Amino acid sequence: MRTTAHPEPPHSTTAPPPGRRGRSGPLVGVLVAVVLTGLLVMLARACESMSGGPVRSTAAYEKHVATTKAAGMRAVSQLRPAPSLAGALPGASLESTANDEGSTSCVDDLGADSDGTTRDQPIYYWQLEFESRRDYLTALRHLREEWSQRKLTVEESPGPAKGRPGQGLPTISTTDEHGIGLMFGPDSYSGAPIVRAEGNCIRHTDH
Fold it and tell me: For the whole model, what pTM was predicted?
């Protein structure tokens, strides 16, 4: 029985249109350059962050100090019923009764600060006295409402455990529009009610 062989179809020899070859080469080069630039920027920012951020002027740091203290005074003034300032004379101002806590963590561990550069972190607190626990809780609720009206995120904790100073006094905290950390609650050592304002650790010129 004879079979008829079918010829194979000829292979296409059509060349790709001119100009298509190598078109992806320049595009890949651009993408690589963009990625490398982004990585270098991220690396520079990471190094700056590790060293403590940019160096600011003395005036800029003093402005941050004033902003931190003002944030704390605002929080104290919004407490209702208003507490007494512990240990203060009648009529004493919030400005004069601000306790400067200082910071033990804002230090140059990596030796990044050159001559003429230092770093500081403003932290202030006000020690308060309330007539009763009920007044304290009322003031806490009022301050939480004030912060919420400003669209600030408010965190609340039940306070110290039983047997610890300040037990039974809950704590609220937030970060305001300027990045200042605010806390109203019992002091971790004495248990006395305080308002605490914590600024940022800032590198700045020391003159």
Answer: 0.74
